[in-house]
Amino acid sequence: MTHEIAVIPGDGIGQEVTPAAVEVLEAIDAVDFDFVEGEAGDAVKAETGEALPKETRKLAADADATLFGAAGETAADVILPLRQVVGSFANVRPARSYPGLDAVQPDTDIVFIRENTEGVYKGIESEIADGVTTCTRVITEDASEKIAEYGFSYAKQNGYDDVTIAHKANVMRTTDGLFLDTASAVGEDRDASYNTALMDALAMHLVMTPQDYGVVICPNLAGDMLSDLAAGLVGGLGLLPSANIGEENALFEPVHGSAPDIAGDDVANPSAMILSAAMLLDHLGYDEQGDAVRTAVETVLDSGPRTPDLGGDASTADVTAAVIDEL
User: Fold this and answer.
1) What is the span of the domain harbouring residue 218?
2) How wide is the angle at C-alpha 279 spanned by C-alphas 34 and 14, nearest 5°?
3) Which residues contact 26 (CB under 8 A, 6 or more apart)?
4) Would you name the residues annotated as active-site residues?
């Protein structure tokens, strides 16, 4: 069976790390891929006036899965619509420390399960008077239940005993109150063990004792911020992959942005993008191959070439070649 994969490099280092992930996937003999490239981001908007052309939307909608690199100034006009195109309701962001790296917090293994459709990222903003703006935060019972069901299922399937529901219901009593009550009810119905945590206090505890946490179920904005915080504990954004999961389709991207300051220098860390490709393999049912990619990345991080963000002087191409050699 051949799987059609939409490949959207985007801007900046997306143009370098996305081909790296494709090279790794092409090195896996057991899986056949047909890679079809689409355009998105700043450059295509400058040319056409659209950051995410209709052709690219259709490409992502029709593909078995999508690999996306990064977008620059047009990020909100690219990634949010792309997530909608694939019907993504869950953003899965693993944050792991690696034995070979001098992480701020070793032995960290946390997966953030972030609600992906609502909250303030609905983009309902307006200027109601001169110098006065508003943003509407949307939280629904259906979306909260769906992300909680996914989060508890993910924890069970992947062997995580610790589940935490992040919220700020002490202040946002109606919206986060609904999220907390709904997610907690899912845990009770499943007779699952879980904790709840105020998201600001959780940020502190993640810095101090991240080893106490496994799966963290979050509203949209909180998941975005807490996962970036966790990246700092394990070695930086260059190590964090993510998956945007829909009912049938999915989009895979690194957590990092387009990094225009190093774009074109062949020094971007491809690890997050390659690990995102490993999650793509998992999604398509190739768990063994996904694990092999993760093991190869871990081996290279332990004893192979490293890009400058990790204290080395290797190029993107060097690291990619080393991962493929391990495979």
Assistant:
1) 104-234
2) 70
3) 33, 35
4) 121, 168, 200, 224, 228
For residue 131, what are the CA distances in angstroms to 50, 97, 126, 134? 29, 44, 11, 10
Give the pLDDT confidence of 168-205 residue by residue, as tens digits.
999 999 999 999 999 999 999 999 999 999 999 999 99
User: What confidence tier does 44 reach under pLDDT thresholds 50, 70, 90?
Assistant: very high
Per-residue model confidence (pLDDT) at position 102? 87
The Cα-based distances of 194 to 204, 289, 319 in angstroms read 19, 31, 39
**pLDDT (tens digit per residue) in 123-133:** 899 999 999 99
pTM of the predicted model, to two decimals?
A: 0.95
CATH number assigned to the domain comprising residue 327: 3.40.718.10
Helix (H, G, I), strand (E, B) or coil at 46: helix
Within a domain: 298: yes
DSSP label at 269? -
Q: What is the distance between the alpha carbons of residues 77 and 82, in angstroms, rounded to a whole number?
A: 9
Integer CA distances (angstroms), 98 to 158, 191, 221, 251, in order? 18, 33, 27, 25
| Residue 263 domain-assigned (yes or no) | yes
Radius of gyration of the chain (CA): 19
Q: 273 with 68: CB under 8 angstroms?
A: no
What is the pLDDT averaged over residues 26-48? 96
Q: Residues 5, 62: one domain?
A: yes
99 in a structural domain:
no
Burial grade of 176 (CB within 10 A; 0-12, 13-18, 19 or more): buried
Label each residue of 154-199 as H, E or C: HHHHCCCCCEEEEECCCCCCCHHHHHHHHHHHHHHHCCCCCEEEEH
One domain for residues 87 and 131:
no
Report which of 327, 319, 322 is spatially closest to residue 292, judged by C-alpha positions.
Answer: 327
Which of 234, 264, 292 terminates a domain? The answer is 234
CA-nearest of 27, 41, 35 to 65 is 35
